[in-house]
Amino acid sequence: MVVVERRVRRWSWGRRIVGAVVVMVLLLWGYAGCVRALENRDGIPADWAIFLGSYDSEVFPDPVETTEQTCTEDLPCRWAVTSDTAVVMMFDDQRDACRAAQTLPATVRQDWIAVRFTPGALTVKQRNDLMAHFANYNRDPDGDFADDLGSWLPWVVRTCS
């Protein structure tokens, strides 16, 4: 009788532990899914870059969509917008954005976007301002929540190698 009670108790505790682990895994999976869904930089439309020209015309004056002229097989961008100061290119794959930043002169990359700056057109501060506009697209202006998590989010490529 005592042996059966011990087995029942062990089974009961084992089920509780397994249940708790399953719940924790499901919560973590749901949390990661929500963070993934909220990480919207991969969905920045070309209209946003064009709007930027009216919002901050000093940094990105007179932008024009140049997808057909800029995006090729060798440069597989989703869209491209060109102004007097820079060419902004959005990619479906961050690795393609990395390749663009590594092969095109005066080009920097931020996640899915590569920006090729016109030499001498912007100061360092203005370049940073332009990149900040894209970094903060659809974001909470008071925090960089997803950026803080970026070290373990597998779909965000932080450095090109």
Helix content: 40-55%
Strand content: 5-15%
Our Rg estimate from Cα atoms comes to: 23 Å
Biggest sheet record: 5 strands, antiparallel
Taking all residues together, what is the mean pLDDT?
78
Strand tally is 5
Count up the domains. Answer: 2
Word description of this protein:
The chain is of the alpha+beta class. The protein has 2 domains: 1-38; 40-149, no CATH class. The protein has 6 helices and 5 strands, in the order ααβαββαββαα. Strands 1-2-3-5-4 form a 5-stranded antiparallel beta sheet, with helices on both faces. Strand 2 (77-82) and strand 3 form a beta hairpin. The longest helix is centred in the N-terminal third of the chain and has 37 residues, at 2-38. The chain is elongated. The termini are far apart.
Features:
161 residues, 48% helix, 6 helices, alpha+beta
In short:
This protein is α+β, with helices and mostly antiparallel strands. It is built from six helices and five strands.
Write the SSE topology.
Elements: H1 2-38, H2 46-55, E1 64-65, H3 67-70, E2 77-82, E3 86-91, H4 94-103, E4 107-110, E5 113-117, H5 124-135, H6 145-149
Antiparallel strand pairs: 1-2, 2-3, 3-5, 4-5
